[in-house]
Design brief:
A two-stranded antiparallel ribbon has the order 1-2. It has twelve helices and two strands. α1 (85-97) packs across α2 (101-113) and α2 (101-113) packs antiparallel against α3. A hairpin with a 5-residue loop joins β1 (22-23) and β2. The chain is globular. The longest helix is centred in the N-terminal third of the chain and has 13 residues, at 85-97. The chain starts with 21 loop residues before the first strand and ends with a helix. By secondary structure, it is mostly helical.
């Protein structure tokens, strides 16, 4: 599998990065439809600081309860929804410059994806690194993805792995998933290591990563790091779909519609295809028309 890049839109900003599903090496799909793909996501949503409903700071992970809680200055200060884009970016920049890791991360996201500001990978890299150096795991994952893809910086697998490992140590599921992709691509160790990749995919899945369940579905379907098993493949597709992951919802709905490895069920096909459409899988709308 070539690197997995761009954010998982269904769980964060609803950005249409996974509109296509293209099969890559070993039959594992490239959800981004391009030559490279890594999971870069903002689980700490941008909307939280633009007048969203959430007003809490990032939760301390269960496994980290005994560690010191983040400093108070890293708590989220919600920005008024009526604030202009320019004013919002100015406020975020001020907070980021004062050392607020959450706002450094979110400002990096804005520059990375062109949200409320012109897209600027160098600025995204700068703010991700500032936050990552303070221990922000999501920023470390995204920074690793930029090195992995060569966005705003020369491609560097060693640095990508460094930042992804730091994030993975805090159980960031997408960083774990990305490391699995690097092992599968042969970016770690000089040659593809499918067993190691499968191990990382399983770890991310056990921690609740829906995209990881989807990837595992394809691993079981074509036999990457494990024996092919059609029944297990479908169970992981469905697991990912039930967690709200668009590409998996499409695949699950398609299979119920066509009776591909499962008994035909128009009602379930409609259910999953509708989920897929809501998550931006436009091709699911075409299948819905057949019902």
């Amino acid at each position: 599998m070539k690197k997995i890049i761009a954010a998982v839109a269904a769980f964060a900003l609803a950005l249409p990065f996974f509109a296509q599903s293209v099969v890559g090496p070993n039959g594992v799909p490239n959800p981004n439809g391009g030559e490279s793909y890594s999971f870069s996501i903002t689980l700490f949503e941008i909307k939280d600081i633009f007048g969203g409903k959430k007003k809490t700071s990032e939760k301390v992970e269960e496994s980290k309860k005994d560690e010191p809680v983040q400093k108070a200055e890293n708590e989220v200060k919600e920005l008024p929804p009526e604030m202009s884009d320019a004013a919002a970016i100015d406020e975020m920049t001020s907070l980021a410059q004062n050392g607020n890791a959450n706002f450094q991360y979110n400002l990096g996201r804005c520059y990375d994806k062109g949200l409320k500001v012109a897209q600027d990978y160098e600025q995204a890299l700068y703010w991700y690194q500032k936050a990552a150096e303070q221990g922000h795991d999501k920023a470390a994952n995204n920074l690793g993805c930029m090195y992995l893809d060569g966005r705003g910086v020369a491609q560097d697998y060693e640095k990508a792995a460094y930042w992804l490992e730091l994030s993975a140590q805090k159980n960031d599921t997408l960083a774990i998933l990305n490391l699995g992709c690097m092992y599968e691509d042969g970016n770690l160790g000089g040659a593809p290591n499918y067993d190691k990749a499968f191990e990382y995919y399983q770890k991310a899945d056990k921690l609740g990563c829906a995209p990881a369940a989807w990837v595992l579905g394809h691993c079981f379907e074509v036999g990457v790091g494990t024996k092919a098993n059609a029944k297990k493949a479908f169970s992981f597709y469905k697991k990912s779909a039930d967690a709200g992951y668009g590409p998996a919802a499409y695949e699950t709905g398609r299979r119920y519609l066509e009776g591909d490895g499962v008994k035909k069920d128009a009602a379930l096909a409609k259910k999953y295809l509708e989920i897929a459409v809501k998550k931006g899988e436009l091709k699911a709308a075409e299948l819905l028309g057949a019902l």
